[in-house]
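sorry for the late reply, my laptop died twice this morning and i had to redo everyting from scratch. anyway the thing you sent over, i finally got around to it. pasting the sequence first so we're on the same page, its 161 residues, then the predicted structure underneath. double check i copied it right bc i was rushing
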Amino acid sequence: MTGDGFTTCLWFDGRAEEAAHFYVSLFKDSGIGRVVRYPEGAPGPAGSVMTVEFVANGQKFVALNGGPEFTFDEAISFQVRCQDQDEVDHYWTRLSEGGQEGPCGWLKDKFGLSWQVVPDPLLEMIADPDPGRARRVTQAMLAMGKLDIATLRKAYDGAFA
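ok and here's the structure:
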């Protein structure tokens, strides 16, 4: 087998380079790699950006300026796992700027890409073997946009705010 694993390709309509720089600015262990431009006679305007290779949070991506034929939808999303509320607040604020906030920790960024900003404590609470605790925290989560760990913890403990 050749190659070095998986690379996620993200299709944009003329905003690939802008998107790559945006994602790289948000996450640690990130950087811009090779930028390839359309040659004469290609589907895109000669000299314009065709692809941008980048790493965001240690994950490899290629951003492709493929045109308006395809757009993102919620069938594919990226989870941002957060250790605490400060991280949740940071990623929620930055990723939703110019985008659209959604329910249950989901949002769309300004490029239409879907994200889930998920605090690790939520995942622990939802997996609790006590069905009452898991149900209460799930119900609390379903009523939220940005997830609030303190409120989720209160629901988990049975003490609604």
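The first helix runs from residue 16 to 26.
thats about all i looked at so far, will dig more tmrw
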